[in-house]
Every structure is written in structure tokens, then in C-alpha cells.
Design brief:
globular, six-stranded parallel beta sheet, about 30% helix, alpha/beta, 2 domains, Quinone Oxidoreductase, Chain A, domain 1, 12 helices
């Protein structure tokens, strides 16, 4: 089989590696039907965070083998894998935060048994804790549905987490900072939760058009203090009820807090990089709340999947480029250079 490996800055290779095998009774082997590149994959690709080896964490596929202790999935099942491994039985999983699973781990790292995990951008993947990690999709699965299902592995659930963390309710005014796949899914999530007015902050016409398709009512192209000024002018001179931060830089956090009305709430899901700093005095003075973090998408899949299956949610539109998995290096380059919002990869 082949898998994607990161060797260094801008050095992505699709190489032959040994086929995965069942190592514990809780494992499953999944043949990938579709995978993708995440915006968070670009940080190690650019050398901002240092890592090497197997990479990728979003995939859907068909189960080929299961360990003796696996009872919830079986060979032939079409499954969604969230961007992490979890058992869905520990206290943190039951409390709704499976990203903090006491037995959990991350694709490409070591699992709790000390075995090196596969990355998500490969042809076959060993899935630890298969009963908890994987979600079975009722079949048959039409090929056209695959991109929409793939968003449930990360970006749709992450955008939803931003909206939930910010407390979006019917009639709220909402600003979304970030026009990548997560930000666009946050627009969709805010619309789904009944927001009355949604501002997408974007300078790119194609992304603006998709934001409007997903429910945005307004577009703001300005950034920094100008962006804050325009947002406040839209909302009584004070800002929006809820702001969804989907980037993870110091500038985006300043944009988010400056765009929130006193007493409003920021939901943040942008992976913090480049050491963003939060200055507490303005937050204290304005009573703006902050909640969010790494999205427990596995907990959200049962809620969101039925609406993807029946067509109420069509989040797969964030994929504006499709490539063979063997051309994964070009997929990284396209996203790094902002020639694509999100790239779908098929073996």
C-alpha cells in the first residue's frame, strides 16, 4: 500500500509502506474511499510546527477486517473516522468531549498501546478502538454523498463546535472570522442553529459565494481595526452577539473580540499557532465570554449525520478541488497557495 509522509518543510511524499495489520482485539482495518487535506495540516507542512512521518486525519472508508473484541462495526461497513481516536465510553467521552478521551490518541502518533498509528492520507488504515472511533453510515452510500460524509470527520463538526461554543441561538447576530473550510462550515452551522444575520469575513469572491450559499447575509472584506469598525457599524455600533473564530492567529483573535458586543460570546476553534496572545483587560472590561477548543466531532456526528443523509446539509461544497491520492503533494501546494479551499483525495 501507499501512504502520505511528511519529511520536512514543503516536503510531502506518497510512498510505499507496509500494509497495516490488526495489533489488538479492538482494531479495525479500513480501506480509504476518500481523504482530504486539513488547514491544520499546513502548519507542519510550512514548518511552523515541527513533525514528520505519517500525516492526515480525515477519512471515510470501508471496513476490511476487525479484531476479535470489535462488535459495533463489521467488514463491509461504510464508516466515518473522526480526526482522533476515542473509546466513547470513558467519562470525558460521555461528558461530550471525546477529544479528551482517557484512552484516546491521534492519527500519526502513538496509540495507548504504544503502537504507531497510521496517518489518514493512505490507502489502508489501522483504526484503534474501532467500536468507539468509527461511525457506521447506513448503506448503500452513493458516490455523490461521499464528500458530504467526509466533512463529518472534521470540518463540519468543527464549525458546529464554534457555533455551539459561542451559544448561537435563534435570531442571533453572528460574525465568522475565517473563510477556510472550517469558517464556511461555521457559517452553515450558525444558519442551521437559527442565526438571524450572519457576517462572513472574506476577501475571496469564490469563498464569499459559498458563504452566501451556506447562509451568510453579509460579507465584510476589511481586516483589523477597519474590519472591527465595519462590523460594529452593522450592529448598533457595538458588535455582534456571537463571533466564531476559525483561524487561530493573534490577528484573528483580536478581530473576534473586537467584533463582539459587550456581554457577547466568542466561540474559537482555530488551532492556536504563531503564539496568539489573549489580552485579558479588554475581555474583562467588556464581559465578552470565550469558549471553544479542539472540537469533539465524534460526539456531534449522530446529530449531524441524518441531515447530511437527507440532504438538508450539503457541506461537501467546501471541496473545490479533487485529486488522486497519489497527487497529495499537489493538494498541499494548492491549499498552501490558497488555490483551493479544501482538496478531496481519492485512492
Amino acid at each position: 500500500m501507499h501512504a502520505t509522509l511528511l519529511y520536512g518543510d514543503h516536503d510531502i511524499r506518497f510512498e510505499e509502506v507496509p500494509d497495516p495489520v490488526l495489533l489488538t482485539g479492538d482494531d479495525a482495518i479500513v480501506r480509504v474511499v476518500a481523504a482530504c487535506v486539513c488547514g491544520s495540516d499546513l502548519w507542519p507542512f510550512r514548518g511552523v510546527t515541527r513533525t514528520s512521518g505519517r500525516i492526515g486525519h480525515e477519512f471515510v472508508g470501508i471496513v476490511e477486517q476487525v479484531g476479535a473484541a470489535v462488535s459495533q462495526v463489521k467488514p463491509g461497513d461504510f464508516v466515518i473516522a473522526p480526526f482522533y481516536v476515542c473509546d466513547m465510553t470513558c467519562v470525558n467521552c460521555r461528558n461530550g468531549f471525546s477529544t479528551s478521551c482517557l484512552q484516546g490518541s491521534w492519527w500519526g502518533g502513538e496509540d495507548r498501546a504504544g503502537h504507531l498509528a497510521d496517518g489518514g492520507q493512505g490507502e489502508l488504515i489501522r483504526v484503534p478502538l474501532a467500536d468507539g472511533t468509527l461511525v457506521v453510515v447506513p448503506g448503500p452510500v452513493d458516490d455523490a454523498l461521499v464528500p458530504h460524509l467526509l466533512t463529518l470527520s472534521d470540518v463540519l463538526g468543527t464549525g458546529h463546535h464554534a457555533a455551539v461554543s459561542a451559544g448561537v441561538q435563534t435570531g442571533d447576530t453572528v460574525v465568522v472570522v475565517g473563510d477556510g473550510a472550517v469558517g464556511l462550515c461555521a457559517v452553515l452551522a450558525a444558519s442551521r442553529l437559527g442565526a438571524g444575520r450572519i457576517v462572513a469575513m472574506s476577501r475571496h469572491p469564490s469563498r464569499q459565494a459559498l458563504a452566501r450559499e451556506f447562509g451568510a447575509t453579509d460579507i465584510v472584506e476589511e481586516r483589523g481595526e477597519d474590519g472591527i469598525r465595519v462590523v460594529r457599524e452593522l450592529f448598533d455600533g457595538v458588535g455582534a452577539d456571537r463571533v466564531l473564530e476559525c483561524v487561530g492567529t493573534e490577528e484573528s483573535m483580536r478581530q473576534a473580540f473586537g467584533s463582539t458586543r459587550p456581554g457577547g460570546q466568542v466561540g474559537f476553534v482555530g488551532v492556536p499557532n504563531l503564539n496568539p496572545e489573549l489580552k485579558l483587560r479588554p475581555v474583562f472590561s467588556s464581559n465578552v465570554g470565550l469558549r471553544g477548543g479542539v472540537a469533539p466531532v465524534r460526539n456531534y456526528i449522530p446529530e449531524l449525520l441524518p441531515e447530511v443523509l437527507d440532504g438538508r446539509l450539503r457541506p461537501g461544497a467546501v471541496f473545490d478541488l479533487e485529486l488522486p491520492l497519489a497527487e497529495v503533494a499537489e493538494a498541499y501546494a494548492a491549499m498552501d497557495e490558497r488555490r483551493a479551499i479544501k482538496v478531496l483525495l481519492r485512492p
